[in-house]
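Case study 2.
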Amino acid sequence: MNGRDLSKSGGQAPCVGQTEWHSDLVEVDQLQIRMDDRDRNILRKNRTFILDNLQNVKSVVDILFEKEALTEEMKDEILIGKKTLKNKVRALIDILPKRGPTAFQCFIEALEESQNQHLVKQLAPNEPERSSIQKESRPSLPEKWPNSDIDVLKMQVTRKPHYPQHHSDDAYSITSSEETRKRGRVLIINNMVFKTEDLGYRAASDEDVKNMTNLFTKLHFHVDPEQRDLSAEDIMDLLDKERRNHEHQNSQCFVCIILTHGSQEGVYGTDGVVVTVKKITDKFDGQNCPNLKGKPKLFFIQACQGEGRDSGAYQSQLNESTQRELEEALRQVNMDVTDAKTEQPYATKADMFIAKSTTEGYVSYRNTRMGSWFILAISFIFKNYACEEHVADMMTKVNHLVSKGRAHDDGRECVVVPQQQTTLTKKLFLYP
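Prediction:
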């Protein structure tokens, strides 16, 4: 048999679920195994369509390599040896017909898994759409929040074998490989002990630090050790130092997490002095931090925005005055409203996302054992959904989850909902 044995493969290129060739099968023989004529003709007749429409060629080639429809040498020849996108695609469809009777089916599966359904419909119109069938369902949101049955810290981040590539006009460029450089820096300010009697000890805030450190480490960020118990002046000094950090020049994103007491005016230092959110975010705008210009900057603020308690309301109970107040509150949350009284964002204020644990004028809640409702929800949602959803959509789920919480405060049952403000100009995906 000239030193080769095809008895376990039937002369086919291996794909998922097939037995591998014997190790003494030489490369020259692999290249001589042909695809079925029907499949070869489909590739030939659709060659121009494939050249013009195949997206995420790297993902397609990587999937074919995992399915053993391509050798490592072929993968490198396509991805490294060819410089332009069309030449990479051209090399791929030149190689595929030589990869055996199963290569076409492997190619269709790779197209499906790499978000190339438009090509699947063209090449295999009768092929069932596996993406809707095989898509791993995310868990439904818990009915109770916080939930002592869920150890958020021990949760693993849900991952997928491949992530879609997004056009630069639609999404920020954020790498998803663990082997690449870190995506950016995460700064955590955690105030627990205050010097004024009216600001009490913030029990379990260290649990928030653990959860956010764990989450963003798994999302491939460099998380600095927390900065604890800072005065207002110390906070501003730290932010000033951070904005000058040269690591931002090579980063793709920046995250700032502030855990402290707060009021409608801003967040408190341990000395009881307020630092406004505007002063915090201004440190990292395009003018004050040019190394982060055009890059997304996320601010997560766990702090009260006032002393109000929200007991909730049923729609049937709303009188006209209350309805107007509710509509005004919703208007303030919705940053798309053109007649908002807030300062209009200029280019220097672009690419920022500010998430607060509660709406203006209201308190937020923290479980003295598990941590804050808001931070727990971010960790739960991001770990489950970062594999498929962008930050703004995930934060909508955070709002929903936190709103399920119930606190008994001043003799009544109270609810809370987080609030976001954004000047992001694109979708922000943080694929694990």
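The chain has two domains: 27-134, 152-308+317-422.
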